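Anyone up for a design puzzle?
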């Protein structure tokens, strides 16, 4: 499984890279802030929302600590998607947040 550090992610965000970030946390967790531009798809909804994703794109998967996003990455890879797990999740992320 491919991984990315929060520092690498912040550098890509600062460079205005076109990123596809999926936040797999629950509603009550994302209420505390999300990475700007992230799409919220709770882990339990991922299988039925696969049609929203483009198999030709790379997705950076985020959760609270990196465990659920790791499971999401394994699932997405098994479905033919290119997924990258954010190491340490939101606990390690100290960049800008957006609130939805």
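Challenge accepted. My sequence:
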């Amino acid at each position: 499984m491919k991984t990315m550090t929060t520092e690498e992610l912040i550098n890509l965000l600062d460079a205005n890279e076109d990123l596809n970030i999926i936040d797999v946390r629950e509603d009550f967790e994302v209420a505390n802030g999300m990475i700007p531009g992230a799409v919220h798809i709770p882990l339990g909804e991922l299988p039925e929302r696969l049609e929203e994703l483009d198999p030709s794109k790379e997705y950076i998967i985020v959760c609270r600590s990196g465990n659920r996003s790791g499971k999401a990455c394994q699932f997405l890879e098994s479905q033919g998607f290119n997924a990258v797990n954010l190491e340490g999740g939101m606990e390690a992320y100290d960049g800008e947040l957006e609130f939805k």
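A detail worth pointing out: The chain is about 30% helix and 20% strand.
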